[in-house]
Amino acid sequence: MMNLALWIAAGLLAAIALVGGVTKAFVPKQKLARTHGGEWTEDATAGFVRTLGALEILAAIGLVLPAVLDIAPILVPVTAICWVVLMVGAMTTHVRHGSARFVFLNLIYLALAVFIAWGRLGPHTFS
After folding, report:
1. How many CB atoms lie within 10 A of CB 42?
2. Are 124 and 6 in contact (CB under 8 A)?
3. Whose CA is closest to 42, among 55, 54, 32?
4. pLDDT tens for each residue of 25-51
5. Which Pfam families does the record associate with it (predicted)?
6. CA–CA distances in Å: residue 28 to residues 53, 90, 101, 108
7. pTM for this structure?
């Protein structure tokens, strides 16, 4: 049952990362800056926003594909830990811009990543 919960959490977080990553990588920075929650992009370079998008796309891949292909499945919890670091940065950025709603969402994403890292490094490793 826990294994299923970890797969669901990883799939959900991968979908969230993919949507956010594609948005940041391919939507122009000026358009992102006009959206609710995207105001932070005004203070960032277009290259930085695209780089974050690429990292999120890689996170989406790293949360699922290594386990599905059974090639270096240790990358799943490593990716989850990297996602935790990314979410700390995201929460800090949203706090600076007064976007409490997005801080809360990032906290949920962070909690999912911690759950995945804990489960896949601890009691439910891929074997």
Report:
1. 12
2. yes
3. 32
4. 999 999 999 998 899 999 899 999 999
5. DoxX_2 (PF13564)
6. 12, 19, 23, 27
7. 0.93
CA dist., res. 113 & res. 33, Å (int): 27
Q: Report the C-alpha gap between 40 and 108 in whole angstroms.
A: 20
* Block residue for tokens 């759950």: 115
Structure tokens, 24: 């940041």
The yes-or-no verdict on residue 126 having pLDDT over 90 is no
- Residue among 21, 4, 3 at smallest CA distance from 109: 21
**Tokens 């796309």 — which residue?**
57
* Contact present, 126 and 70 (Cβ < 8 Å): yes
Q: Where are the domains of the chain?
A: 2-121
Which residues are CB-neighbours of 33 under 8 A, at least 6 positions away?
39, 41, 42
pLDDT digit string (tens) for 46-101? 999 999 999 999 999 999 999 999 999 999 999 999 999 999 999 999 999 988 89
Classify 62 as helix, strand or coil: helix
